[in-house]
Structures are given as structure tokens and as C-alpha cells.
Design goal:
By secondary structure, this protein is of the alpha/beta class. The protein has helices at residues 54-61, 67-78, 80-83, 88-94, 99-108, 114-136, 147-168, 171-183, 196-208, 219-227, 245-256, 271-275, 290-314, 316-325, 329-340; strands at 30-33, 38-39, 187-190, 213-216, 234-238, 260-265, 278-281.
């Protein structure tokens, strides 16, 4: 009596002349054939939350594979996302084998065939993309959102950050810092990475109105800059997390030299907040996603702009009188144009 080789390919570790080494049944797979084919493990429910990873199934079986099946497995493991949206014919050509070999490998892994394996690969890739997206970008915006929804979400985050800053910022402390900046011989600012843009903008704004201000970036410049401060000067850090070792050293050196230390932060309980003389809370804390970071940047910029405006309020006569009285007429015109143009 002839025997159908396909009827035993899964429960026994059968091999075809093309396939190379056989594949062990998937872990937990029922090895009793039923109607000429083995039954997949009941625990591997394709599409369920508890679905086994097709890539893990392949990796577990990899040591038992040779020949054409090994080539198929290597292609799948190398580019699973591409295989998850490609045809069996394409995969056969890529692995230099036949569609039948791919079908046999799929069923040996516990799938109904290649279409089911391909669907599992696509689902796994989708879950990976979603997890990576949410970790980086956040869940407020999805990859499929239209541009108008992305815009409204970002705008809403900005409005929320502004309200949080208005409710959280200590206006008396801000006024005290502004007074010290106006009277300081030297103002030293520090911010790095994501905190650098609002810190550098504050530096440019203060420099524009004639405040003796310097901006430090990096450990060496921060330490040297802090060491140049004297009593009555101001050292100001912008750090959303309040946990920067470089910023902590900057604050420590500035305090040793008698300067007032100021921190603009999203975390009033951070280690830097306990070290600084005047911690200014922006109302927007630290979170892992970009949308949260974007909202925090908005609150940082708002608090920085408020501080600059308070400083400018205290020195309008000194600034504009000096610019009007210095240099020849041409120089006055050019210098005054800096202050007349609000875009600077």
C-alpha cells in the first residue's frame, strides 16, 4: 500500500529531497495526524493575544534546518516585514526553492500554510511598529492620523502646557531672578540636548537687550563658565528632568563662587531642584514620548520668555538710551534697527 509522504511530514521528522533536514514539531504541537495532517498546538492561537511569535518558532527550529528550509528560514528572519507582505512565489525565488518547500516549513511550524504564516509575520511586525511608535512618538498621534488631526493634537498639547505653566510658575521667584539678572556682572546659562533650544533662545534674547550673558554647552565649557562667576552673578540652567550630571556640576561650582543658581525644570522634586537656589517649575513634567517632550518644550519656552520680558521691563531706559547715544549716526541707525525689528 502506498503511503502519502505529506501525511507524515509534521508528526515524524520527515525530509524531502529538496528540503534538507526536517523540522521538529512546534513546541506543544499535537503529533497525532488527523485526516492526513497534524493538529497545531491549541496554545498557539493565531490572531489571539497569546499567539506564539512566528520568529521565535523559526529561531527554535533553526538548529534542525538545512538545505532549502534553512534558506527559507534565513530569508524570513532577515526581512520578516517584507515576507509578511509578499507572495509565496517571491519568497521561493528569494530562497532559491519551491513554493511547496515553503508550505511544508509553514505547516511544520504549526501553521495552516504559508498564508497563515505570512499573516502572523505581518501582525508581529505591526505590533512591533506600534510599540516602537508609542514609545517614541506617543499614543496621542498614530501613524494613520491625517495632517489636520496631528496639527490639532500638537496645538492642544501646547495650550495644555501653557495652562500648566500659568498655574505652576512662581511669579514672585521669577521677579526675584529678573532683579538679580539686571544687577549681575555676569549671567551664565546652561542647557544641553533637548534643553538647549529654550536655553539658547533665552541667551539670545538677553544678549539682545544688553545683558552680559554667556551660554555654555558641554561639560568643559559649563565648568569653566561657572568658575568665572562671582557673588551677585547668576547661573541659570534649563533641564526638564532636573537630573543632568553636567548641570549639577555647573550649579555646584556656581554656588561655590557665590552666584545665585536658578533652575527651570519640569520636575520640582528632581535632584537639581534641591540643589538650585531658585527652582522654577514649568508645570509640564518629563515623559518618554515625543508629544510629551513637545508640550514640555512649549512650557520651557513660555517660562523663558516670561523671564526675558521681566528683565526687559526693568531696563528699558538703560538699554535704549545707551543705543541712542553711542557711535556716529550710521552706527546708531544700524544698532537701533536691532531693537526696532521684533524678529531679532
Amino acid at each position: 500500500m502506498s503511503r502519502d509522504p505529506e501525511s507524515t511530514r509534521r508528526p515524524s521528522r520527515s525530509r524531502s529531497p529538496e528540503d534538507g533536514a526536517p523540522v521538529s514539531p512546534a513546541k506543544g504541537e499535537d503529533t497525532h495526524s488527523r485526516g492526513g495532517r497534524a493538529e497545531a498546538n491549541d496554545n498557539r492561537r493565531v490572531g489571539d493575544v497569546g499567539e506564539a511569535s512566528p520568529l521565535e518558532l523559526l529561531r527554535s527550529a533553526l538548529s534542525d534546518l538545512t538545505g532549502a528550509r534553512l534558506r527559507v528560514a534565513e530569508v524570513i528572519l532577515r526581512i520578516p516585514a517584507v515576507v509578511g507582505r509578499s507572495s509565496i512565489t517571491w519568497l521561493a525565488e528569494e530562497a532559491r526553492t519551491s513554493p511547496a518547500t515553503i508550505t511544508r516549513l509553514s505547516t511544520a511550524l504549526g501553521f495552516e500554510g504559508f498564508p497563515e504564516l505570512r499573516a502572523a509575520l505581518a501582525r508581529e511586525h505591526g505590533r512591533g511598529v506600534q510599540a516602537g511608535w508609542e514609545k517614541d512618538i506617543g499614543s496621542a498621534i498614530t501613524p494613520d492620523d491625517p495632517a489636520d488631526k496631528v496639527l490639532s493634537t500638537l496645538a492642544a498639547n501646547q495650550f495644555s502646557a501653557a495652562r500648566n505653566a500659568m498655574a505652576s510658575v512662581d511669579l514672585d521667584a521669577m521677579a526675584r531672578v529678573a532683579d538679580h539678572i539686571v544687577s549681575a556682572r555676569r549671567v551664565q546659562l546652561f542647557g544641553e540636548w533637548g534643553d538647549a533650544p529654550p536655553a539658547y533662545e533665552l541667551y539670545l534674547r538677553l544678549f539682545r537687550i544688553g545683558i552680559p550673558v554667556w551660554y555654555d554647552e558641554g561639560a568643559y565649557f559649563a565648568q569653566v563658565g561657572a568658575s568665572l562667576l562671582t557673588p551677585g552673578d547668576v547661573a541659570l540652567v534649563i533641564s526638564r528632568s532636573g537630573e543632568s550630571p553636567i548641570a549639577t556640576k555647573f550649579v555646584e561650582i556656581a554656588r561655590e563662587h557665590g552666584a545665585m543658581t536658578v533652575l527651570i525644570t519640569g520636575d520640582p522634586q528632581s535632584s537639581l531642584a534641591t540643589e538650585a537656589d531658585v527652582p522654577l517649575h514649568t508645570g509640564t513634567g518629563v515623559d518618554g514620548s515625543w508629544t510629551d517632550y513637545f508640550a514640555g518644550r512649549s512650557s520651557d519656552a513660555l517660562v523663558g520668555a516670561l523671564l526675558w520680558a521681566l528683565v526687559a521691563q526693568r531696563v528699558p531706559d538703560r538699554i535704549y538710551d545707551r543705543m541712542n547715544q553711542s557711535g556716529p549716526p550710521q552706527a546708531r541707525t544700524r544698532s537701533q534697527a536691532i531693537f526696532d525689528n521684533p524678529t531679532h
